């Protein structure tokens, strides 16, 4: 496969005064048209309609690839920009042209406006689609484009200013008779003013960045101490992510739903809303699972929310696609949260139920064309669900980032009514510099149960090796009775997983089945070894393969098991269970056929769940619904000897402060020799544009600090020690 990146005839480093470009074919080996055009919209493009010749996508990853797909359908050439870290990325390969805009840090590449402007001039792009994040809501960037005569595929600078500033947008919303959340309309000057306003409003309160979105620069505070810490962290995070440190404060509505309305507006006075999206399943104020429509919104509420969203858009003469976000309480009272003046991550689910290609409409509007649709033309056909598949550890705070190379990656791309929006492939690197999203998985069904069933099946089809991922959490939420019934809120994860997510909890019979599978895997591996030159490279662990005893260690517990080979298969006795495994099953198959003692099929889970098996001899790693279980198979004698070994006493690590994820040390609040109290903040780690405050696990004196501010830290590395 051809590798996209800086040409070998050019230096791979970034030159301050030169941007590097390379022209390559759009399609490459291994990327079929089926994958490129699986957008699930019914929008058709009029080839006789005037269009742009070339569009630069000022973004990376899945959203850059998504925009390029529509550009391709419209016959428009696409230009990618990329950092040195992204030289071999999929979005670079998909584009007709690609330009390197700097080193990996976003402030030196994707967010560096002068470099992006040079790329635009160099390639002759007539328009820029900003995607989401980066420069997508930056009024200064839009102004630069306007001055250069380049179209910005998004709203005008005045609307960007008004709606991008949460303080100004709230004032405009009030004037437009849009329901708003009680709070302080000014900019917070310092921690003390934040505390003062919080007490006037009444706890809990939400501190959030005036600019930007995506959950960054936001903190919930329940007391004065949390307000002070939240002010400081949110200020730094907002400045780092958006170049704007201003914060506002408002009442935090506990346990609401997060429901948003998609709007489309052109330059000819036409405005319409594309119904709602339910985005309540969140962690750290970032969405994880979205669906359209919402189970909670009735037609009257939908109309009222849609009309208020359009009224707000019209108040600033908004053009292009935008999203008005609301918080909705249990009585269906809704309150304006913010307006995102860009394409949303979750836009595909709206495309699925309406048939509207939102990206195509954005491009048409930017070219000056009117909307072809009227409000009465916008349907709700079926149901669509989106899961965000992240490279992160779901067992740590519902998902702390994981970095590494995807040495094995397979998407469920070819299942019916399943859409995968991604910007990575096997071999791609998930780095500390960018968002940890691997892909967006979207399913469509005639109703919600069908869409959810397809989602669970599709999640099962993923193969992701090289980084941790959140599929186990997604599967568990999808199967939760409260989620299935539609009884959800933004507090869903902490409410239903108060001790954090622990993975799929096996029932007794399921555990027995897994133990049997692990036993069979070990036996098959032993047979394979003995078949090779009629010997084994390992010490024989099974004297007779037709009948054997094992001990399987899972979660520190030793389980005795016996195997008897019969004419039908392998009869395995574990505890009080007897399980039969099909004799014809081989290690190359992920799904062993489990038979009952009457030789009828006995499956691990009903319907869509299946297991994935990998071997790290003598350990079988068995994955069920995305949760991986480690099962070590040993002989009975080895188990007996293990029981005689002295038990290891776990070391006291409470004095060590570890990095919870790979990232950069953003701040140190202590120095060597300083006395600290238990729970006191000692440092801040920045990872993927989010700031994470770390606290002392015990009281004591700081003994040693191993890093300085600005240093990169790996996951679980010790940052400092407390004596």
Automatic annotation (TrEMBL):
UniProt cross-references to SUPFAM superfamilies, sorted A to Z = Glutathione synthetase ATP-binding domain-like, PreATP-grasp domain, Rudiment single hybrid motif, Single hybrid motif
Reported cofactor(s): biotin
Listed EC numbers = 6.4.1.3
SMART domains xref list? Biotin_carb_C (SM00878)
**UniProt KW Nucleotide-binding keyword:** yes
Specify whether Metal-binding is a keyword of the entry.
yes
Identify the residues that the record assigns to the ATP-grasp domain, covering every copy.
170-367
Lipoyl-binding domain mapped to chain residues: 648-723
Entries under InterPro entries matching the protein: ATP-grasp (IPR011761), ATP_grasp_subdomain_1 (IPR013815), BC-like_N (IPR005481), Biotin_BS (IPR001882), Biotin_carboxylase_complex (IPR050856), Biotin_carboxylation_dom (IPR011764), Biotin_COase_C (IPR005482), Biotin_lipoyl (IPR000089)
What are the residue boundaries of the Biotin carboxylation domain, all occurrences included? 51-498
Q: Which reaction does it catalyse?
A: butanoyl-CoA + hydrogencarbonate + ATP = (2S)-ethylmalonyl-CoA + ADP + phosphate + H(+); propanoyl-CoA + hydrogencarbonate + ATP = (S)-methylmalonyl-CoA + ADP + phosphate + H(+)
Q: Which residues span the membrane?
A: none
Task: Name any one Pfam family assigned in the record.
Answer: Biotin_carb_C
Organism from which the protein derives: Stichopus japonicus (Sea cucumber)
| Protein's name in the database | Propionyl-CoA carboxylase alpha chain, mitochondrial
């Amino acid at each position: 496969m051809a590798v996209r990146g800086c040409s070998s005839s050019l230096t791979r480093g970034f030159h301050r005064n030169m941007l590097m470009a390379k022209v390559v074919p759009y399609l490459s080996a291994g990327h079929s048209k089926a994958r490129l055009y699986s957008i699930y919209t019914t929008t058709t493009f009029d080839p006789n309609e005037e269009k742009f010749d070339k569009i630069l996508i000022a973004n990376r990853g899945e959203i850059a690839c998504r925009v390029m797909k529509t550009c391709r359908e419209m016959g428009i050439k696409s230009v990618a920009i990329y950092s040195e870290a992204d030289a071999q990325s999929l979005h670079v390969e998909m584009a007709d042209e690609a330009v390197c805009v700097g080193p990996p840090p976003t402030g030196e590449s994707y967010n560096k406006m002068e470099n992006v402007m040079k790329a635009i001039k160099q390639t002759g792009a007539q328009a820029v689609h900003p995607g989401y994040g980066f420069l997508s809501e930056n009024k200064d960037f839009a102004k630069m484009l306007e001055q250069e005569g380049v179209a910005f595929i998004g709203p005008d600078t005045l609307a960007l200013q008004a709606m991008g500033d949460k303080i100004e947008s709230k004032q405009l919303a009030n004037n437009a008779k849009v329901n708003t959340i009680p709070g302080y309309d000014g900019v917070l000057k310092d921690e003390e003013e934040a505390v003062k306003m919080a007490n006037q409003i009444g706890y809990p309160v939400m501190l959030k960045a005036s600019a930007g979105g995506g959950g960054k620069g936001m903190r919930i505070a329940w007391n004065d101490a949390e307000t002070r810490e939240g002010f400081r962290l949110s200020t730094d995070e907002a400045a780092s992510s958006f170049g704007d440190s201003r914060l506002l404060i408002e009442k935090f509505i506990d346990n609401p739903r997060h429901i948003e309305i998609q709007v489309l507006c052109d330059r000819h006075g036409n405005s319409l809303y594309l119904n709602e999206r339910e985005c309540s399943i969140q962690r750290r104020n970032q969405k994880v699972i979205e669906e359209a429509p919402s189970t909670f919104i009735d037609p009257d509420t939908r109309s009222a929310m849609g009309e208020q969203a359009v009224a707000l858009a019209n108040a600033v003469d908004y053009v292009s696609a935008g999203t008005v976000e609301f918080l909705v309480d249990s009585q269906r009272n809704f309150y304006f949260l913010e307006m995102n003046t860009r394409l949303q991550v979750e836009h595909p689910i709206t495309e699925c139920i309406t048939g509207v290609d939102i990206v195509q409409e954005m491009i048409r509007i930017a070219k000056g064309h009117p909307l072809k649709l009227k409000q009465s033309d916008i349907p709700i056909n079926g149901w669509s669900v989106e899961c965000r598949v992240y490279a992160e550890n779901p067992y740590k705070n519902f998902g702390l980032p994981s970095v590494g190379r995807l040495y094995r990656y397979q998407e469920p791309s070819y299942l019916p009514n399943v859409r995968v929006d991604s910007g990575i492939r096997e071999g791609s690197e998930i780095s500390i510099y960018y968002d940890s999203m691997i892909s967006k998985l979207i399913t469509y069904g005639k109703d919600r149960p069908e869409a959810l069933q397809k989602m669970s099946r599709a999640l099962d089809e993923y193969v992701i090796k090289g980084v941790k991922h959140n599929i186990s959490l997604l599967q568990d939420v999808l199967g939760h009775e409260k989620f299935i019934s539609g009884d959800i809120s933004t507090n869903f994860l902490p409410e239903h997983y108060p001790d954090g997510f622990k993975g799929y909890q096996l029932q007794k019979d399921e555990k027995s089945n897994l133990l049997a599978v692990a036993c069979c895997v070990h036996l098959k591996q032993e047979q394979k070894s003995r078949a090779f030159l009629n010997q084994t490279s390992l010490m024989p662990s099974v004297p007779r393969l037709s009948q054997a005893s094992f001990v399987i260690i899972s979660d520190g517990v030793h389980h005795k098991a016996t195997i008897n080979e019969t004419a039908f298969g392998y009869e395995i006795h574990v505890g009080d269970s007897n399980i039969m495994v099909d004799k014809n099953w081989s290690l190359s198959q992920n799904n062993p056929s489990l038979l009952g003692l009457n030789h009828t099929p006995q499956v691990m889970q009903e319907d869509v769940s299946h297991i994935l098996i990998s071997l790290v001899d003598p350990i079988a790693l068995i994955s069920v619904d995305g949760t991986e279980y480690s099962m070590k198979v040993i002989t009975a004698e080895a188990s007996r000897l293990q029981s005689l070994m002295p038990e290891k006493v776990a070391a006291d690590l409470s004095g060590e402060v570890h990095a919870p994820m790979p990232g950069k040390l953003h701040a140190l609040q202590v120095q060597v020799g300083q006395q600290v109290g238990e729970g006191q903040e000692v440092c801040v780690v920045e990872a993927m544009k989010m700031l994470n405050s770390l606290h002392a696990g015990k009281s004591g004196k700081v003994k040693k600090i191993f890093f300085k501010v600005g240093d990169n830290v790996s996951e679980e590395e010790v940052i400092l020690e407390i004596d």
